[in-house]
Specification:
- The complex is a heterodimer.
- By secondary structure, chain A is α/β, with parallel strands linked by helices.
- The longest helix of chain A is centred in the first third of the chain and has 27 residues.
- Chain A starts with a helix and ends with a helix.
- Chain B has one domain.
- In chain B, strands 1-2 form a two-stranded antiparallel ribbon.
- Classes of the chains: A alpha/beta, B mainly alpha.
- Chains A and B meet through helix 2, helix 3, strand 6, helix 7 and helix 8 of A and helix 3, helix 7, helix 16 and helix 21 of B.
């Protein structure tokens, strides 16, 4: 009898402490290091933003954060892995605008709805940049020439179906012009081709041409943004020129959809504090990148908006699957 | 002269700053280790180290990264020569003759030659960077898609000179490589081709294929050899080549260095292409081209000096124009930017002192490479004395780790093992592996730039003969491709020799 009571007590006690432990782990997240998955190679822009974030986040989370690069498939491999990770907050991901693009191309198993947004960290608009020797001094010159020579203006981008190709295609769609889109293996080779005067323009972000603009080799005619870039206050937006269009690439922290609310809240709070860290801001400034913090819900709206935008655009271009 | 003056000041700056020298030395040592390990490339080494340099001053940060870059390109040759594992793609050309020399018991001299050639080629290229940068930088901008296409075709034509004994088998292997290179994202259309739904195949997993074909296949072969027969004692022997041997190499090294620098300047072409181009030209100018592939010291010297001369060539347009020609320099450009230095013409004007300190440091890096390389060779050579029962599993482990490390992907390990099995049978039936590797490097480049050139010209094929560089390269390619065929038809050389064996089967017991 005594033994029976002892056993009951032990079981109850064990259950009670187990449930207490469960409650405690949820409250104490994180109890072990967090892995930040980056879908692009080490040393690239996305990787450096992620490393600066992981480094600065140490002060705002009780556990450290390590960066793991999972490259391949234009980001599809890494993003798929983030989507399929256990939703416990120990494997979070660096999401990029490709989340809203790749699913429509039929090369991804995820959709934008498979991720819970935590915080957008950075955003860069597309820009129309020409060689300094180019006869086109203004956006109007450029458009007038494109109108007079349909299909002759060669715009270099970072790859077919990549963000800067879609930006140029969207501009074409909105203005009714026809460009000759030339895909390169990334933004750098496209810029090199522009420097060598092999193409008329590129549609990459201002951050990717800023060195050459400063050296007087290239000229930015317009940005496809909602407002003028703080780095180039003299460069107009296409909105000012009557074209209602803005195309941004962005980077931000995302987690798998089923991640518990408490974990999401912890990460959101930590991210909010992390982007205020001087070291994080400094890294972005050095890389000529723009800090564009947006909290989870706001970031989610951007994702939804882009998702619809790119779906429509890719359907029009015949790229959607 | 201004440059010499500034360079001397640069050396004085460095001498006053031993920590910087120490970090550069560490960079070279790390680079060699990274190069030795298959799968870890110079690009990856520089990228991994990059975040650690953020807290440093510009000179030590950039020099440490340069050290890793230089050491990484060189380090690949050590395992290529000793074990036929090209640690980096550039060393695939070194493996052909280097491993054959090793099999003949001349590993030491092959390693020594590789080290000397790397150092001379690299130093030469840094001097070009110092004195001729503004003159040569223009080449980078001349290269558009049409020129790149012609270069890739020239690269493909080199298959004829790396085919080993049988030209036909070489061409078969080359076409196999070209077929493989069509797997992945269509470079112009942006849709997946032959990927079977695997996102991992959106880019051809080039390095796992290379590790599989060269290293894993060799390991599989030795697994099939009974231990008693395989225990051939190989000694490292003499390291520094005697003067009368080295004398014969000087022209090869100088020519290869020049080629390496030019290939380096060309955007999109890196050390892997430079080493094959240099190898090809060394064979073309040789009095005994039939010795290449069977253990010709000139082959090692050419491939290594070409690959390391490429480093200075790569850095040249990056520093003077701010355009990175390949993946390593793209990361290095990031490093300079993070240090608050904007590469381009202004860099030389605003930060001349620092730039020349960097140049002086780069020369120091190559001197360090020579010393570290030569002094570590005896230790590395101990590998040859290891019993096969230990060495073979060790090689296979390295293959698995290396294939995994590139993308942190088990999928790549599977690719590596599968190509290892293919490589085993290729070796057994005397099909050379180098043409496959060459086709995998050049195939996507040729396809993408041809279609890009067509797109740029609005669909006209005129670019094939109206652009001088394109035409010149295409003609050289035609000569490279047709000469061995003509010789073959005439019946002197190029065809299978009576014994019909390849280099790889040197100690072979498989047959």
């Amino acid at each position: 009898m005594k033994g029976y009571r002892f056993l009951t007590g032990a079981v109850v006690g064990a259950l009670a402490s187990a449930s207490l432990m469960v409650a405690a782990t949820a409250a104490e997240y994180p109890t072990k290091p967090i892995e930040l998955t980056v879908p692009y190679a080490a040393g690239g822009g996305t990787d450096l933003v992620a490393r600066a974030y992981a480094d600065a986040a140490k002060k705002h989370l009780p556990q450290s954060m390590g960066v793991v690069n999972k490259t391949g498939g234009a980001g599809a491999v890494g993003l798929t892995e983030i989507m399929a990770a256990r939703a416990d907050g120990y494997k979070i991901g660096m999401g990029t605008v490709e989340i809203t693009m790749l699913p429509h191309m039929g090369i991804a198993r995820f959709t934008a709805d498979d991720f819970t947004p935590i915080a957008r960290l950075n955003a860069e608009p597309s820009a129309i940049t020409v060689n300094a020797d180019s006869p086109f001094k203004t956006y109007e010159d450029f458009i007038a020439n494109a109108k007079a020579n349909p299909g002759k203006v060669r715009i270099g981008n970072s790859g077919t179906g990549a963000i800067w190709h879609l930006a140029a295609a969207a501009l074409q769609d909105k203005t009714g012009l026809t460009f000759n889109h030339i895909p390169y293996d990334g933004a750098n080779p496209a810029v090199t081709a522009l420097l060598g005067n092999h193409i008329e323009a590129v549609s990459v972000s201002p951050a990717e041409v800023v060195n050459h603009v400063a050296a007087g080799k290239l000229r930015i005619l317009a940005v496809l943004a909602d407002e003028r870039s703080p780095a180039f206050p003299d460069v107009p937006t296409v909105k000012e020129k009557g074209v209602d269009l803005s195309v941004y690439t962005w980077r931000g922290i995302v987690v798998p959809k089923k991640t518990p609310q408490a974990v999401v809240e912890t990460l959101r709070a930590a991210s909010k504090a992390t982007v205020e860290e001087a070291s994080f801001k400094e890294t972005l400034t050095k890389m000529n990148l723009t800090l564009a913090y947006a909290d989870g819900p706001e970031f989610g709206k951007v994702m939804q908006k882009d998702n619809t935008f790119f779906k429509d655009l890719m359907t029009k271009l015949g790229m959607a699957k | 002269m201004y440059e010499i003056d500034m360079l001397l000041k640069g050396f004085a700056n460095l001498a006053a700053d031993p920590v910087t020298l120490l970090l550069a030395l560490m960079g070279v040592a790390l680079g060699i280790i990274i190069g030795v390990l298959p799968g870890l490339t110079a690009t990856m080494g520089v990228a991994i180290l990059l975040p650690f340099t953020f807290g440093m001053d510009p000179a030590p940060a950039i020099l440490m990264l340069s050290g890793v870059f230089f050491g990484g390109i060189y380090g690949g040759s050590i395992t290529a020569i000793l074990l036929k594992i090209p640690g980096t793609p550039a060393a695939a050309a070194t493996a052909m003759d280097g491993y054959a020399l090793s099999q003949k018991g001349q590993a030491g001299i092959a390693l020594g030659t590789a080290t000397l050639s790397s150092c001379i080629g690299g130093t030469f290229s840094v001097f070009m960077l110092i004195f001729l940068a503004p003159l040569l930088a223009g080449i980078a901008l001349e290269f558009s898609a049409a020129e790149t296409f012609a270069l890739a075709v020239f690269g493909l034509s080199i298959i004829t000179s790396v085919s080993g004994e049988s030209l036909v088998k070489g061409l078969i292997a080359g076409f196999l490589g070209l077929l493989l290179s069509t797997v992945g994202m269509d470079p112009m259309g942006g849709f997946p081709r032959f990927t079977g739904g695997f996102n991992e195949l959106l880019a051809v997993p080039f390095i796992p294929v290379m590790i599989g074909l060269f290293a894993a296949s060799e390991a599989f072969k030795s697994l099939g050899q009974p231990a008693s027969r395989a225990e051939v004692k190989v000694h490292i022997g003499r390291i520094i080549p005697p003067w009368d041997v080295f004398k014969g190499l000087i022209f090869t090294i100088l020519r290869s260095s020049g080629l390496g620098i030019i290939v380096g300047i060309i955007p999109g072409a890196g050390a892997d292409i430079a080493s094959f181009v240099a190898y090809n030209e060394a064979k073309r100018f040789s009095k005994n081209p039939e010795n290449f592939g069977k253990g010709e010291l000139k082959g090692v010297a050419a491939a290594e000096s070409g690959a390391n001369a490429c480093t200075g060539g790569d850095l040249l347009p990056m520093m003077t124009l701010g355009i990175p020609g390949d993946a390593v320099t793209a990361v290095m450009l990031g490093a300079l930017t993070m240090q608050g230095l904007q590469p381009g013409p202004l860099l030389f004007k605003d930060h001349a002192g620092l730039v020349f300190t960097l140049f002086a440091g780069m020369l120091f890096c190559y001197a360090a490479l020579l010393v570290l390389g030569l002094s570590s060779l005896r230790l590395m050579g101990k590998v040859l004395e290891m019993p096969r029962s230990i060495l073979t599993p060790l090689i296979l482990t390295l293959c698995v780790v290396g294939a995994y490390a590139i993308n942190n992907s088990m999928f790549d390990v599977g690719i590596m093992l599968a190509t290892g099995v293919v490589g085993f049978f290729m070796q057994r039936w005397d099909y050379p592996a180098s043409p496959v590797v060459l086709a995998l490097i050049m195939g996507p480049m040729a396809e993408a730039s041809f279609r890009r050139a067509l797109s740029l010209s609005g669909g006209s094929l005129d670019f094939l003969y109206t652009r001088p560089i394109t035409l010149g390269l295409l003609l050289v390619a035609a000569i490279t491709l047709l000469l061995p065929l003509l010789k073959h038809l005439k019946g002197d050389g190029g065809g299978p020799t009576p014994d019909g064996r390849t280099v790889g089967a040197g100690t072979g017991g498989v047959k």
